[in-house]
User: Fold this.
Amino acid sequence: LLFPVCNLCGKCRPRDTDLLQPSLNFLYWSLHQTTPCSQQRAVAVLLSNVSLLELLQKVLECTWLWSPPSRPASLSSEDALLCSGWLLVASLLLYQHRYNTEVHQTLSVDLTEVLNAVIFRNKKPVLLLVSIMQFLRAVLRQNFSSSLLVIVGQNTAPSAAQPQPSSLQDTALHPLAMQQVFSLVVSLQNLLVHKDLLLSQAVVACLETLVEYLYVKNQDVALHVASQPWHRFLLFTLLSGGQKSFLQPEVLRLMTLFVRYQSSNIISQREISQIIQEAAEANIAELPEATSHALHLFLSQV
Assistant:
């Protein structure tokens, strides 16, 4: 089925949402819900179809073109198609890297546009925001060096001039700039305050991947980002309201991040003791799977 569905997608235009959206979803689930052996073959089929990749290129570009002043409260068919496109490309990046699959056609993405989508949001639906963050995580994990992807943007062109002292950190973090990093971190913090479960999971995962990327590029910058005092206020905000327990997946994963990068000004020995005490008093068997997994990661890190 992959062959005819890929060919069908390649004959469509981005406006053919009724046909494209379920087709891209089928391709996405074909990658994820299969055996490793079949998965490798599925990746090869998708990446060998040039017309499909050209269609995906057009779909991604529509993210910046389809920007009505007031979006409907529910997910429109156009936004749903964009979600499917970003999630499929993020998956292709992941599996192409894993299996070192041959690439017949590259995709081009403007990094500044991607970052601005998260930083400024512009009333984008939560699901579209989550999909773009999944893509951002994929390129961060691959150090912006995927053979499937060409990154363009204002920071990607190498400068002929010798970098000035003020831009040395930007050079180390290339193609990211320090200002973009801090803007992104602040925006991720603000999105966490919304306490939307799906959004919180995506935001924390994106923050984890970003700090890991920074740590490889420049440890001082990574530790500086992880120890921002605003993080502590963010934790208090997440713990306010009805459920004050530390045993919330996003809280546990944030705590794990701060322990990993030794941000003692954000998480103290007292908070660590409180989490362990809550875990000791909880019925572990009744905890949701996401909470159990996050708790396991936290305790392992401690």
